[in-house]
Amino acid sequence: MKAWRAWVALLDRREEGTSLALFRVAIGLCVLGTVGTVVGHGLVEVLWVDRAHGGYRSLGEGSWLVALAGGPTPAVIWGLVAVSLAGGALLVAGLAARLGALLALQGVLALTWVNGHAGGSYDDLLTNALWLLVLASSDRTLSLSCRLRTGRWRSDDPVPAWPRWLAVLQLVLMYASSGSQKLSSTWVPGGDFSALYYILQQPTWQRFDMRWVAPLFPLTQAATALTWAWEISSPLLLLAFWARLGPSPATGLRGWLRRLDLRRPFALVGVPMHLGTLLVMNVGPFSALSLCFYLCLWHPDEWHAAARRLRALRRGRPATPPAPATASRPGSTARPGA
């Protein structure tokens, strides 16, 4: 019973909703970008409509939702496109965000399952994020819902913290599983660390000619080794969150981990890596989606502190320290960074 009570107390922790709101907006933009890109390039019927109706290959009945609606016909597919875009727009606006996430989730799932040749693992990452937003209270602040409810765009209403933690867990699982599958001699210690160099030479992924990278081969070797080590060690990031769940000020191992703050070196590697990938490689929405999850690494108090520092820099004066956080309802937590 003691363990059960501790588990219930953990899941009852609450925090102000800024981190989840930023995640909601970013994922909504990714939905609009992912589906809207297909629309903009005129590829909706080519990729997702059956050959009998003008597509490039036979798709059968499609996913369960497509089959239930009548198969991958133009009317069904365009209806799902409209549902997906409407869901993404609701997420960005923060209006009925859970409904928007559910609409986008079912629309994107149906579209990406209808043709397995026209997608990638980033589709799973997007739909996992949407499912988290179905479960989360992500429109309590920075949303049209908040504006209609309170007359302001921001609210300090506490929301459950566990959806943000699950987003971080998703990020860790993605990197850890990716690193554990990089077992060729081009990736692991003992090999030649040539993986990234050869990846950059793949014409199907290049945004432009990358032959100029050849003289920089030693740098690509170092980047390969760093990427592999970073992905394999990503579960250590969870220790940063464990350290913030305890009492404050922390002592011993918790205190040392709080001072070390593994989130910073993790982001210092991950953010430039994804931005670089986005710049030189065409891997779909993977990099943008991955960066969305980074928004959940920081507690809302830390986002507010960063905003205050930016405002102070613009005004040319030091930022005032943040006021101590206080619990606003039973089950809330006042520990920054938790």
Give a description of the structure:
The longest helix has 23 residues, at 18-40. It is globular and about 65 Å long. The chain has 338 residues and is mainly alpha-helical. It has a domain at 18-160. The chain contains 16 helices and two strands. Helix 14 (263-280) runs antiparallel to helix 15 (286-294).
Explain the layout of strands and helices.
Elements: H1 2-11, E1 14-16, H2 18-40, H3 44-48, H4 64-69, H5 74-93, H6 97-114, H7 121-135, H8 144-150, E2 158-160, H9 162-180, H10 195-200, H11 217-232, H12 237-244, H13 252-260, H14 263-280, H15 286-294, H16 300-315
Antiparallel strand pairs: 1-2
Helix pairs in contact: 2-5, 2-6, 2-7, 2-15, 5-6, 6-7, 7-9, 7-15, 9-11, 12-13, 14-15
Terminal-residue CA separation: 24 Å
Portion of residues in helices?
Answer: 55-70%
Number of helices: 16
Structural class: mainly alpha
- What is the global morphology? globular
Strand content: under 5%
> Count of DSSP E strands?
2
Mean pLDDT: 92
Order of helices and strands: HEHHHHHHHEHHHHHHHH
